[in-house]
Amino acid sequence: MQGFYDSHQFELASILESNWQTIQYELNQLRQGDFVPWPEEYLYGKGWDVFGLYAFGLKISKNCDLCPETTKLVETVPNLTTAGFSSLAPGTHIAPHTGYPDGLLRCHLGLIVPDGCGIRVGSETKSWEEGKCLIFDDTLEHEAWNKSSSTRVVLLLDFKAPEGLLKLPERPQRQGLSSIFGLFKKKKDEVSR
User: Fold this and answer.
1) Residues 9 and 154: beta-carbon distance below 8 Å
2) Residue 4: what are its φ and ψ, rounded to 5°?
3) DSSP code of residue 177
4) 3-class DSSP state for residue 104?
5) How far apart are CA 110 and CA 129, in angstroms?
6) Which of 36, 104, 132, 192 has the most other CB atoms within 10 Å of its CB?
7) pLDDT at residue 175 above 90?
8) Which segments of the chain does DSSP mark as H helices, in order?
9) Which of 29, 34, 28, 146 is nearest to 92 (CA)?
10) pLDDT tens by residue, 57-115
11) What's the pLDDT at 167?
12) 4-5 and 80-88 strand pairing
């Protein structure tokens, strides 16, 4: 399965990359106290903080008001589910894990990227670059780290993958109520013969 995707095959990458300094400017207007810890602390201990704009398709209005230009840009992304700033403090390591749900891709736009930061998706490792997008399938095992002495920040977005791009896991055949209804259909077919 493919981990990273060529960002140039997604229109959102060119829109974000051509406006990255505007996004970075709004990021720099935020205070560290505006960020909150990522909820799954067992993955990292401390040092992974986020400032959400959208969560599971819902707009976080008070945060969007603080970043109006960034909000306008992320709202152009088709089938957006999540958007916000993701900050990794120096020395932070996010343990290998898999994301959810199937059918989504994750985009990271590098905004503040010191040397010594990286991300592994599947067997491939990359580093962020300021003003450039990395797009990947976060349902594959991945991890990230900041081995530098300063904070790394990306704009993080989740969006529904274009139809046919991702190979979704095969669904088991008939389970639960659908298998019961299948039995009724078989019985009905047998009776009508």
Assistant:
1) no
2) -95, 145
3) H
4) strand
5) 5
6) 104
7) no
8) 11-18, 20-29, 61-66, 68-74, 177-191
9) 146
10) 999 999 999 999 999 999 999 999 999 999 999 999 999 999 877 789 999 999 999 99
11) 67
12) unpaired
- Which candidate, 26, 22, 1, places its Cα nearest to that of 122? 1
Measured distance CA(19)–CA(70) in Å, rounded? 9
Tell me the C-alpha distance between 156 and 111, whole Å: 10
Handedness of CA 21, 74, 139, 57 (dihedral sign): positive
* Alpha carbon distance 78, 114 (integer Å): 30
Domains within the chain, CATH numbers bracketed? 4-191 (2.60.120.330)
Written as one letter, the residue type at 179 is S
pLDDT at 185 over 90: no
- pLDDT value of residue 162: 86
Angle between helices 11-18 and 20-29 (to 10 degrees): 60
Strands 117-121, 142-146: pairing kind: antiparallel
- Round to whole Å and give the CA distance between 8 and 15: 10
Locus of tokens 């900041």: 146
Q: Which residue has the tokens 């003003």?
A: 131
